[in-house]
Design goal:
The chain has 81 residues and is mostly helical. Helix content is 57%, strand content 0%.
């Protein structure tokens, strides 16, 4: 028997993000992470990579909007790197 595994998509995780004021756009982008292997299996690696690129774009956009620039985010191999 196989058991399902929830990681970032677990309600206990994203509900705390929402309570902390994280935007729904970012929460939804993070939740996609749990589906990457399914996306790759059903649609192929390019589709999974496209999903990852979308997550990166959402996170970069939201980080750029923050007034405090004490963060640093870098992804290698993706668009704009």
């Amino acid at each position: 028997m196989e058991a399902g595994i929830w990681t970032l998509g677990r309600p206990i995780f994203w509900k705390r993000l929402a309570a902390a004021g994280v935007s729904q756009e970012v929460i939804e982008a993070i939740q996609v992470s749990d589906e990457l292997s399914a996306i790759e299996g059903l649609c192929g690696r390019p589709a999974a990579e496209e999903a990852i690129d979308k997550v990166i774009a959402v996170v970069r956009k939201r980080l750029a909007e923050l007034p405090d620039r004490s963060w640093y985010a870098f992804w290698s191999g993706g668009p704009g790197s």
